[in-house]
Amino acid sequence: MATTSGAGHPLPYDTYREAIERETHRFAEAVRGADPAGAVPSCPDWTLAELTRHVGAVQRWFSALLTRRVQEPPRSREVELGLPEHERDLADWVAAGVPGVAAVLRDTDPGAAMWAWGEDQHARFWARRMLCETLVHRVDAEQAVGRESDVDPDLAADAVDEFLVNLPYAGLFAPGVTKLRGDGETVAFRCAGTGEEWRVRLDPDGFRLLPLAGGGAAPQPPTVAVGGAAADLLLLLYGRRSYQEAAFDVSGETAVLDRWVAHTAF
What we know:
Layout: H1 13-31, H2 48-68, H3 90-96, H4 98-106, H5 124-144, H6 153-166, E1 185-191, E2 197-203, E3 206-209, E4 224-228, H7 230-237, E5 249-252, H8 254-263
Helix pairs in contact: 1-3, 1-4, 1-5, 2-3, 2-4, 2-5, 6-7
């Protein structure tokens, strides 16, 4: 599978650190007082308690990886979680982990070389990934309890980029990705209002995120294009929205987009 080249650049490291803290507290606020057994429609196999445990566990695991500056894939995901006795206390447990996560991120050189499952083999990969995980699951939690959700457009656009940059490497836990192929078709994701665009080409041996067009040459029209606000595109990529909704402007061969959706569950 070819290497990828993102449409944008990661945000400043401190932006991730500060946004993780905000998003984690927003997540905890959403689930606090809610029925732990309540369903999470966007994560059909999970209850709110399971979603909350996942968010807190992932943050603690990522923090452990950063603390150890791992140089090869870890053989175990076991870390000391300190889970509360009662599920009703899980929201406070998630919030209580914020100072520890913040301390690890502050003490970490974002440019330090370390293993990561995605493209960027540096510590900053994990901060960016942690934010994306927390942000999307915060929306999951808010929707599960009937709250309106909003996503900062800059964070959303960066999370779109992060998803597309790393998707080719996600086959270990998203096996459908390894079967996403084509005959040169291109899928364009267009961010309304900013003009940002990401193009993915489906080739017989896999797929790749194309670099930005340069030199002033007009790019060839994509096979299919889907446009929308950054937050909507992000939730579309994560399977939380359908391109058939009115929020999206779609043109071209939707069968190619259907193939994309079928193989990119994350």
